[in-house]
Amino acid sequence: MISRRHYVAGAWALFAGAVVGTVVWPFPDTEAVALPTDDDFGYRGRKVRVTPHGREIHIVVDGTKEVHVDRGGPRGGYLTHALPFTEFASPRALARAVIDAEDGGLLLI
């Protein structure tokens, strides 16, 4: 049976290891990569506007349909709840995929 002294010592060792691990091997800095700028383009007869707001990006399709995008995927890419489990290299690629999914009847934006 483990004693309280060993339990507390082990907890402190784990805590110290976590602190040292984050200082020695910090998480990647996704903010260091250049953020996208405002982008207007057309795709499949629709007008698309991409507007960055810090780590978040708003995509507006045809002036009314909005898609929320978050930067910070496992590989530093872009994620959206509209297409979960997929990480995109650019907001433009994500917007095209969302429009393709809507045209295919997979989702409504």
Question: What does this 3D model show about the protein?
Answer:
With 109 residues, this protein is α+β, with helices and mostly antiparallel strands. Helix content is 31%, strand content 27%. The chain has a domain at 39-104. It is built from 2 helices and 5 strands; from the N terminus they run H-E-E-E-E-E-H. Strands 1-2-3-4-5 form a 5-stranded antiparallel sheet, with helices on one face.
Alpha carbon gap, first and last residue: 57 Å
**Widest sheet: strand ordering:** 1-2-3-4-5
Structural class: alpha+beta
Share of residues in strands:
25-35%
Task: Give the number of helices.
Answer: 2
Taken in chain order, the helices and strands follow as HEEEEEH
**Cα shape:** elongated
User: How many beta-strand segments?
Assistant: 5
Main beta sheet: 5 strands, antiparallel
Radius of gyration from the alpha-carbon trace, in angstroms: 21 Å
Which stretches are low in confidence, meaning pLDDT under 50 for 5 or more residues running? Answer: none
Q: pLDDT average, as an integer?
A: 80
Helical content (DSSP H or I, runs of 4+): 25-40%
What are the main properties of this structure?
single chain; 109 residues; alpha+beta; 31% helix
Quick recap:
The chain is an alpha+beta fold and 109 residues long.
Topology:
Layout: H1 4-24, E1 39-43, E2 46-53, E3 56-61, E4 65-71, E5 78-80, H2 91-103
Antiparallel strand pairs: 1-2, 2-3, 3-4, 4-5
Keywords: Membrane, Transmembrane, Transmembrane helix
Organism: Kineococcus aurantiacus
Protein name: Tyrosinase co-factor MelC1
